[in-house]
Amino acid sequence: MKFNRNFIINLLVIAINQLPNARGVKISESELNNFKYGAKEFTMAIIGDTGYTKEASQVMNLASFDALLHLGDYDYKCEPDSYFTKILGSNRKYKFFGILGNHEDAGECGESKYHRYVSNINYQMKKNTGTSCVFSKYKTMWSCVYNNVRIVGLSPSISKEESRSSQLAFLKKYLSESSEDWKICAWHYYDDYYHTGKYQKNKNYVSGDGENFYDYCKNQGAIIFSAHDHVYARTHVMSKFSKPVIDTYDYDSPSNIVQIRKGATLNILDAVGGWEVYDEAGKHKNFSHWIKKYARGSNGENAKKYGGLFCKFNVGGNNKKSYCEFKRINSSTSVFDSFTIYRNNDPKNIAYDKIDSRFLSEKIAAYQAKKSGSSSGSGSTTTTTNNNNPTIKTSTNDRCGSSYGKCPSGKCCSKYGWCSTSNDHCDVDKGCQTKYGILITTSIPYSSSNRCGSSYGKCRNNECCSRYGWCSNSSSHCGSGCQPLYGRCY
Ligand SMILES: *[C@@H]1O[C@H](CO)[C@@H](O)[C@H](O)[C@H]1NC(C)=O
Ligand SMILES: *[C@@H]1O[C@H](CO)[C@@H](O)[C@H](O)[C@H]1NC(C)=O
Ligand SMILES: *[C@@H]1O[C@H](CO)[C@@H](O)[C@H](O)[C@H]1NC(C)=O
């Protein structure tokens, strides 16, 4: 997606007005656009129930993408190699992630073909470069990290070797330890409320009567993809799935704005990749938690208009923003659905458009810092970098974080992994990554009391300065919200 010009200029005006130290600085739109900042952008295609038809290839040609997440059903004829040789081809440039559908199941095609499907998927995933995956013993579940996304792929009710409870345990293990910005849960089947009705009796396929898989993913803020029912359907942002509850903040935002966080997410049913499009049926199609649905019409409309979802992650470098389009073939209006996903941890206090303007001010600050060199202004200030981990290598290119290392002495590591000395990089509340570089300004005077902060000064006795400006060594003062400019933090 390209930003609309007026939109970005408006944002720029807002951001510049908000920046305390941006007075008099002129930055052109093109200068800023040429300055790459933040997390790497990439596009993921999410497509299900394709078979290996020519339409399946046409769907994949609807957009360019860096990674493909296939939601299962690679063919409907028990030919385990066909999709992988005819559709994926041998010299694909994109990453491939695939889960098992019911048409790969042993019940459908017999044991040996089932194993062949599993090993074909596994082989393709191991061919990826730049991804890091863990597979379960029988390879019917996996957890992969690709850029700043964690994807957990499961096969509840399909794998007989790995039970539903072991699938839930796998999900919990890999999702709870995920520190990636984006999280995705993917499985082929669905629970009762999350399909539009072709199979009226397929109840509770994913969660069974046990703990709800959807709600676990929601609690972690993961986006949920499922398939099997050959429709495309997107839910509202839900704060509960086991018995559907639409998130309060979803009512306040337009239908093309999706705000997710730990505790609220959406489910997308995405299974019209090239084989067949179903009608909707029964009570399921009427559920009010669907915000957008795509199916075959009663006169056969859409029957051949297959499609897939294309999501760009980290729009413009912003790791809190993604943009998705559901596109289809054989239609003059290719885009049927489009929406922006914001990771908004605090929708009560932060409007989603603030996420854009905050990111832009950070980008502008980083650009200014880069332009004016790394000096922090006042020549008399002595600075040191407080880095608690001497084993981390020092970055040489002004990037920082787990893959680059810590900033050189005197610079802070921003949330988005850039070394600089601006407040936006050094402020822990703005996500400064203290592990990879933080600034201690020694010219700040000591406080004469047990208060600290800009009007009091630094804590004495090597104590920590709390979020609210009190000195102490207690963990509540030294941890979250601790102000590194005014004392020790850990
Ligand atoms: C679904 O809603 C439509 C109208 O919105 C109604 O005609 C139909 O009877 C409903 N179907 C079910 C199964 O409730
Ligand atoms: C469907 O669209 C593809 C290209 O997207 C085209 O090659 C094909 O001929 C179309 N088929 C029909 C039936 O319109
Ligand atoms: C606070 O902790 C630091 C670091 O352990 C220590 O040097 C300092 O003496 C402590 N201050 C007080 C008042 O206990």
From TrEMBL:
Its cofactor is Co(2+). This is Metallo-dependent phosphatase. Residues 1-24 form the signal peptide. Keywords: Carbohydrate metabolism, Chitin-binding, Disulfide bond, Hydrolase, Metal-binding, Signal. Disulfide bonds join C407-C419, C412-C426, C459-C471, C464-C478. Residues 397-435, 449-490 form the Chitin-binding type-1 domain. Residues 371-390 are annotated as: Disordered. SUPFAM superfamilies: Metallo-dependent phosphatases (SSF56300), Plant lectins/antimicrobial peptides (SSF57016). It comes from the Eukaryota. One of its GO terms (molecular function) is hydrolase activity. SMART domains: ChtBD1. The keyword Hydrolase applies. InterPro entries: Calcineurin-like_PHP, Chitin-bd_1, Endochitinase-like_sf, Metallo-depent_PP-like.
